[in-house]
Amino acid sequence: MRGSLLSALFVMVALAAPALRGQEIDSQQPSSALQAAPQSRNAAPQSLEERTRLAQAGDRLAQNNLGFDYAFGRGVPQSYKEALKWLTAAASAGFAPAQVNVAVFYERGWGTRVDLDRAVRWYQAAAEQGNVTAQSKLGSLYHKGRGVPRDDTKAAIWYRRAAEQGNAAAQNNLGSLYHHGMGLQQDYVEALRWYRKAAAQGLAEAESNVGVLYEDGLGVEKDYQQAVAWYTAAANHGVSRGEYNLAMMYFSGRGVPLDYVSAYLWFGRAAAAGDSLAARNLKDLATVMTPHQKQRAQARLAESQNASFSDQQQHSPFDTGDRNQK
Prior knowledge:
Structural class: mainly alpha
Shape: globular
Order of helices and strands: HHHHHHHHHHHHHHHH
Largest sheet: none
Number of helices: 16
Distance between the termini: 67 Å
């Protein structure tokens, strides 16, 4: 009776549509993850005065990094407007990392109004120079229809260019287009190949997506134990889809012994990250667990929430460069 009740309560969906990962951040403010373009390895560190002098003389790298200084108030009064001025100077001179950074400012409305048309133009300029960040970003914009008409065929083109340069996010997203037949002929073997490339670089979303293909037997022989292994890797890296998928495996006893306590833990982790389906499943699961199971599960969840979960890969919307870049 309990098994049939839970089967009715829970939606047995592992990952119907793996989320595409672009190069965006959610915050409307620059974060400490953003980086300025580094100096050449053989160059001595510049002072702010030296960087300013070089920027005023037209040095594109110095202009880009002075823009970074103003964006963060690093040694100068914080000013998005002043940051955009210097970034635009470098971008207009053809410096691809600055073109990406200017695009970010227009996309996010930092120091200016949001202007997706301009953002796309700057991303395009950098992408055509071979800038991998811009290529991956253009793929995301075309897939989402932001600033351009939605076009998954063009998304696939730009994702592929970035993926072939080793960009993990683009590799994952290209895999997802193959997985779902969006802009490309559906090909689960190709999807798995690109997901694996991204997962090999530690991209947690890709680890979860590899697990989906093993769970569903798409492009590979169905293997629940392999699915659990990939979901576990993703979950331990803090990705809510991996946490949710792992919870479903524990709940259903596929690839692991049926374990409501572990299912509760991972549903709880996913719910805390904002997964509404996990939150509903967590509530329903609690109604059929014994008091002892709930006590153990809640203790494990509290312990896990207090622990430090690191290694979730982040991608900065600010691009980097050196004096050898175009």
